[in-house]
Amino acid sequence: MEKIVILTGAGISAESGLGTFRDEGGLWTQYALEDVATPEGFARDPVLVHEFYNARRAHAAEAVPNPAHLALARLEEALGGEVLIVTQNVDGLHEKAGCRNVLHMHGQLDRALCAGCGHRWEAPLEMSVEDACPACGARAVRPDVVWFGEMPYHMDRIDRELAEADIFAAIGTSGQVYPAAAFGQMAGAYGARTVELNLERSAASEDFGEMRHGPASKVVPAWVE
Ligand code: BV8
Fold first, then answer.
1. Nearest to 191 by CA among 12, 2, 43, 45
2. Which CATH class is domain 1-18+65-106+151-225?
3. Which ranges carry the Deacetylase sirtuin-type domain (predicted)?
4. Which of 74, 169, 201, 216 lies in disulfide reach of 68, CB 3.0 to 4.6 Å?
5. 19-62+109-145 adopts what CATH topology?
6. Which protein residue's CA is at the shortest distance from atom 40 of ligand 1?
């Protein structure tokens, strides 16, 4: 049975109404990445960072999976444990679509982390600097997301899966953030067939043997079928 590893980025959730980062009007055009997605930015202005993530958490809570998410759930249903989704997205749309085999390498909006003791728990919709960690009581509560300069989650497992993949697909990612941006090149070097599904070419396109251009809600169901 062929092992399929699928990397997803903000583009797969765009048609569910969640903003991407680098497209026209994207999140990084409204906020400076340094202010809201780095530990230094959080230390400088935790109120701004909580506002940024509270707004995204509320938006994500309302969002519904689109045909691209649902097609991946059908693929997982058909192939079971042979499909692994590695997502850069912090929204829960893959899980809402019914996927179970999902690794959130950049964390999750609906998880909170205590910067004091490392305790993790389900985040309330609104988080603030007033919140105390339920385990140690410290007022050091942050969103459980991976900021720039921080180590993404599950990297050892992801490296192993890329080495064993027969097919590697990247969906809706601009290929500008590492280490995810190197996964296509790594999987290809290990001998996987590689395919990129995106509106247009990305910064990592030359690492892929096949490209399918179009909106995810169209090209992902077609690729899965
Ligand atoms: C690390 C989480 C090391 C929270 C995010 C120079 C060279 C190499 C690396 C670096 C470098 N300088 C700095 C670095 C490291 C840095 C990095 O890569 N920087 C970049 C900017 C150069 N990386 C890191 O810091 C990473 N950590 O390297 O750690 C380390 C080692 C040991 C010990 C400690 C540390 C951590 C990176 C994670 C940062 N966190 N977010 C949050 O979400 O707020 S990153 C952020 O951008 C998002 O999470 C997302 O994951 C990521 C990538 O964005 P995309 O998902 O690709 O979205 P984007 O908007 O860019 O693109 C959308 C795409 O969709 C486009 O291609 C578009 O065409 C397409 N699209 C749009 N609509 C549709 C569509 N496709 C289909 N259908 C549609 N409808």
1. 2
2. alpha beta
3. 1-225
4. 216
5. SIR2/SIRT2 'Small Domain' (3.30.1600)
6. 147
Instruction: Find the 143 Cα to ligand 1 centroid distance in Å.
Output: 17
Binding residues for Zn(2+), as ranges, are 114, 117, 133, 136
Per-residue pLDDT tens over the stretch 37-93: 999 999 999 999 999 999 999 999 999 999 999 999 999 999 988 999 999 999 999
What does the DSSP 8-state code read for residue 4? E
Q: pTM higher than 0.90 for the full model?
A: yes
Q: Of all atoms in ligand 1, which is nearest to the CA of residue 181?
A: 18
Cα 176 to middle of ligand 1, angstroms: 6
β-pairing, 193-198 with 167-171?
Answer: parallel
pLDDT tens string 111-123: 999 999 999 999 9
106 is catalytic: yes
Distance CA(33)–CA(64), nearest Å, equals 26
Q: Kindly state if the Cβ of 143 falls inside 6 Å of ligand 1.
A: no
How many whole angstroms separate alpha carbon 13 and alpha carbon 91? 8
Write down the domain spans for the chain: 1-18+65-106+151-225, 19-62+109-145
